[in-house]
């Protein structure tokens, strides 16, 4: 899939995010919209996966550590062919497959159940360590929020990753600079993020525009050559693609009403024509 096609796919995923959260009447649009491009590059270019055989032994693994952004994850999986899109409109409904947070027991393509912030990276480290013991060529990718890295468990896991030389582990930080209570500086600043990970002996790649497909592709290409655990820190915009949601902490965890849904979809449709 070329760059232009991936840009359009990311925009389609954003539209599905808006629709699914609207239908659910609850969810987390801000952080879901900000990570859509990262997930698109992962699932349509980087990862060794097979939607028709989601549990194949040599597949790359993915962990959504910021599990509340499941709408982006589900929309990506549906667009990649893991399940029908109709499931997206049942998000958070009683008896439906797609819960508010990822569930590996019931959702094809989900490698780890997540939700409690900070814990996903530990699971990713365990997967990467086990794969190395098996001498597998598979890699493990883990997406975290920038507010999430205020959790101490993230840094314990980072220390483990470096100690065990997990060069098959790639962390990605969705650095949209906002969490539920405001900016990450106001709540508990983790900056400078890159220097912190470097001090834990990680290979660090900074991406100035986490919505630029080419910049993301370049970063992923560089970390493949690393002999250390790696982290890609991508600067993003919370609520990306929807004008009234962009850079607004208030859209961290609420659903749009029908008028807001229609405006969001209209803006995303108009954006599609310019890609």
Report what the structure shows.
The protein is an alpha/beta fold and 275 residues long. It has a single domain, classed as Rossmann fold. It has helices at 3-24, 29-34, 36-46, 70-80, 120-133, 152-163, 184-188, 193-199, 213-224, 258-272; strands at 61-64, 140-145, 169-175, 178-179, 182-183, 203-207, 230-235. A five-stranded parallel beta sheet has the order 1-2-3-7-6, with helices on both faces. A two-stranded antiparallel sheet has the order 4-5. The radius of gyration is 17 Å and the shape is globular.
* Count of discrete alpha- or pi-helical segments spanning 4 or more residues: 10
Largest sheet: 5 strands, parallel
Query: What is the structural class?
Result: alpha/beta
What are the secondary-structure elements, in order, as H or E? HHHEHHEHEEEHHEHEH
Q: Per CATH, what is the topology?
A: Rossmann fold
CATH superfamily: Thiamin diphosphate (ThDP)-binding fold, Pyr/PP domains
CA gyration radius, whole angstroms: 17 Å
- Based on CA inertia axes, which overall geometry fits? globular
Total tally of structural domains: 1
Mean pLDDT: 97
User: Could you tell me the number of beta strands?
Assistant: 7
Termini gap: 15 Å
Strand order, biggest sheet? 1-2-3-7-6
Low-confidence stretches: none
Which percent range fits the helix content?
40-55%
Q: What is the top-level CATH class? A: Alpha Beta
Q: What CATH architecture label applies?
A: 3-Layer(aba) Sandwich
């Amino acid at each position: 899939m070329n760059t232009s096609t991936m840009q359009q796919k990311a925009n389609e995923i954003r539209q599905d995010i808006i629709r699914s959260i609207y239908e659910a009447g609850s969810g987390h649009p801000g952080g879901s919209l900000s990570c859509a491009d990262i997930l698109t590059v992962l699932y349509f270019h980087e990862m060794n996966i097979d939607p028709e055989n989601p549990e194949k032994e040599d597949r790359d693994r993915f962990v959504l550590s910021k599990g509340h952004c499941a709408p982006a994850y589900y929309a990506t999986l549906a667009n990649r062919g893991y399940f029908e899109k109709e499931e997206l409109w049942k998000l958070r409904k009683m008896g439906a497959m797609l819960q508010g947070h990822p569930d590996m027991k019931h959702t094809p393509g989900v490698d780890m159940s997540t939700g409690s912030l900070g814990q996903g990276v530990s699971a990713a480290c365990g997967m990467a360590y086990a794969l190395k013991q098996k001498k597998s060529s598979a890699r493990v990718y883990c997406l975290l929020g920038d507010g999430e890295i205020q959790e101490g468990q993230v840094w314990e896991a980072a220390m483990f990753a470096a100690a065990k030389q997990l060069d098959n582990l790639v962390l990605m930080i969705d650095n949209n600079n906002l969490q539920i209570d405001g900016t990450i500086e106001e709540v508990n600043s983790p900056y400078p993020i890159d220097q912190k990970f470097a001090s834990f002996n990680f290979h660090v790649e900074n991406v100035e525009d986490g919505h630029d497909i080419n910049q993301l592709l370049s970063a992923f290409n560089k970390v493949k050559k690393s002999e250390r655990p790696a982290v890609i820190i991508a600067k993003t915009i919370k609520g990306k693609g929807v004008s009234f949601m962009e850079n607004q902490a208030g859209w961290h965890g609420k659903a749009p009403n029908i008028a807001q849904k229609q405006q969001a979809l209209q803006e995303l449709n108009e954006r599609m024509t310019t890609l």
